[in-house]
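ok new one. same drill as before - structure tokens go in, u give me an amino acid for every spot. 333 of them this time. try not to just spam alanines like last time pls lmao
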């Protein structure tokens, strides 16, 4: 099945060779507390230790390095909920290219400021990822910039898939891999890598309960539009694109399940990461821990949970830890 998909295991292995030395091979550690709770060994893939604070650097770097010199000279552009923008700005700067990042007003200021700090041109447009994408399309038409999408692109997916290679290399016997799910770049890439090597390993996508575009699309059997809502897991927001060409099919064919999490469960995951694992992660990065704490993951082990990002507003993080952060769409604690 994997060989017929838009991104193959060999594509991912080629990406790993291409980005070697430009991204970190992040550590994986065993969690005693979560293992005791789950009754099976649980390992945490600490991808939030990546250079730009999230897994997005893998895909952005692979995509930029796959461009020709002429394409890089035109400059790159992307819509982003924050982490891809930061990663693309970093990767472009390293290769001497100019990056333009389009974000909506929903993107937290801490992520916007980090992108700006890397020298990218920031465009704040509208209140949704779709509106930001419209500005990207305009810049491609009018200025000839080269689009590097946040997820729906073979080179981006292949880059994210290198994370799956590292997981199976470190833990060949992994039975379940828990992956944050938004537009599907990470989930598609990790699933292609993991199942390409270990077909029996289950890969489960995790996302927030409200505004989960990929989950709604998978349920509908085709890409659909979903209203974007505020969430502690802001990086998981945004649509998958009605003309999705890569990640929808891969997630449909490779993911074993998709599990939804409430805002309270995501907050609990963030608190556990900090209090018990000594890790500061954003809401999207805590969904694997959240699912385990909520008892939503059943099956044999070992289990691997990807902590995908650390780019959280620290004032918000402190409120979550203290239990004083109002929960979006729910009654506060």
């Amino acid at each position: 099945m994997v060989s017929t998909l838009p991104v193959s295991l060999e594509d991912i292995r080629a990406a790993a060779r291409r980005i070697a030395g430009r991204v970190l091979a992040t550590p994986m550690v065993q969690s005693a507390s979560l293992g005791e709770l789950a009754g099976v060994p649980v390992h945490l893939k600490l991808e939030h230790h990546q250079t730009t604070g999230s897994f997005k650097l893998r895909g952005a770097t692979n995509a930029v390095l796959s461009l020709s010199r002429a394409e890089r000279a035109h400059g790159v552009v992307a819509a982003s909920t924050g982490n891809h923008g930061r990663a693309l700005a970093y990767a472009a700067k390293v290769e001497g290219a100019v990056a333009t990042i389009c974000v909506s007003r929903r993107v937290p200021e801490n992520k916007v400021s980090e992108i700006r700090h890397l020298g990218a041109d920031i465009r704040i447009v509208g209140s949704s990822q779709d509106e930001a994408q419209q500005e990207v399309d305009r810049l491609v038409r009018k200025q000839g910039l080269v689009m590097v999408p946040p997820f729906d692109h073979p080179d981006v997916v292949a880059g994210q898939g290198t994370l799956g290679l590292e997981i199976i290399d470190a833990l060949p016997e992994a039975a379940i891999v828990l992956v944050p799910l938004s537009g599907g770049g990470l989930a598609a890439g990790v699933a292609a890598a993991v199942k390409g090597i270990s077909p029996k390993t289950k890969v489960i996508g995790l996302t927030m309960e409200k505004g989960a575009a990929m989950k709604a699309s998978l349920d509908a059997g085709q890409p659909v539009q979903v209203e974007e809502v505020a969430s502690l897991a802001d990086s998981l927001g945004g649509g998958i694109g009605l003309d999705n060409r890569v990640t929808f099919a891969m997630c449909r064919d490779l993911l074993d399940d998709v599990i939804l999490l409430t805002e309270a469960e995501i907050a609990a995951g963030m608190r556990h990461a900090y209090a018990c694992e000594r890790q500061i992660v954003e809401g999207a990065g805590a969904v694997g821990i959240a699912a385990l704490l909520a008892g939503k993951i059943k099956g044999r082990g070992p289990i691997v949970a990807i902590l995908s990002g650390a780019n959280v507003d620290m004032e918000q993080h402190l409120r979550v830890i203290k239990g004083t952060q109002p929960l979006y769409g729910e009654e506060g604690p």
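The two ends are 45 Å apart (CA to CA). and btw The longest helix spans residues 154-170.
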